[in-house]
Amino acid sequence: MTDPSARTPVFDGHNDLLLHLWLNHPQNPADAFFNQRLSGHLDFIRMRQGGFSGGLFAVFVPPSDYVAKFHGRDARQEALRHDALAITESQIAILQQLASRSGGRAKICRSVSDIEQCLASGVLAMVMHIEGAEALDADLSQLDRWVDAGLRSIGPFWNLPNRFGFGVSGRFPGSPDTGEGLSAAGKQLIHLCNQRRLMIDVSHMNEKAFWDTARLSDAPLVASHSNVHALCPQPRNLTDRQLAAIAESDGLVGLNFGTAFLRRDGRRGGDMPLGVMVQHLDYLLEKLGEDRVAFGSDFDGVSLADDIGDVSGLPRLLAVLRSAGYSEPLLEKLCRANWLRILRKTWGK
User: Fold this and answer.
1) pLDDT in tens, 279-336
2) What does pTM read for this prediction?
3) Does domain 8-347 have CATH number 3.20.20.150?
4) Interatomic CA distance for residues 205 and 212, integer angstroms
5) N or C: which end of the chain has fewer CB within 10 A?
């Protein structure tokens, strides 16, 4: 077997590992993550096999009907089912446990320097991201406490509306123009994120909320895990106008690995050739330039192509990109450098 240290290091823009651990391993998530092969796409052993060296780890409150699919839950977890704040705090605690019980193998990163040090030393670089701000009250009173805990990025929405405005939702094929934009509280949240130098993720914003954010924010526009609407007309994918705005802001798009966001037919089926991912990357590179495209896999949150399978399949994707003529300098940008650039530009450190 190839030494994992020889794998191309990948810093990725989005995963749902914390949700997977919260649902399936609430009692001892760190032991499960570091020592077991988990049922999802991610665990420490397969991350090492695939060259996954770090990324943005989402704290996500799932809809109650999604949680209800999981049986055999203990009383503590049942009590948390419909409490967004408690679920958020629980997943933050899981991320902290991954770091504190890693034996130096993982670290919560608050700066690009932290990430670079981790990449250089083989430590898993974990950046805390909130996906969907349901747990924040109207006064945003919890935000500073979460920043102190390591929060460096926030996406105000998932697919559902909340007090901050409207996420994108709708059937395939469809437009991202699916409702109203940011509420007054949502506009306040954008301003506060700018003040705190938190990255704002537009991936789950509908079109009006996207344009509200583009008008209000003084930071680069970042879609951490989104694809090309012209190639796959999912409502959550980005139109050419949105891509142009991201390019103008010197922002970034992270390619979502989910087949439903890649295939022209919008299906989740895994029988998708990896060349479809190359098509989306080619399109993004044409519209954005090679400094503004990266990976945003959405591991543990989507259905993947069979040829990737899980995080250990990253080298197979990179092999396809090399065969398609992607140079090593370009792959280095896609795999790491472009995320570090945009985080440094956004965070200021």
Assistant:
1) 999 999 999 999 999 999 999 999 999 999 999 999 999 999 999 999 999 999 999 9
2) 0.95
3) no
4) 10
5) N
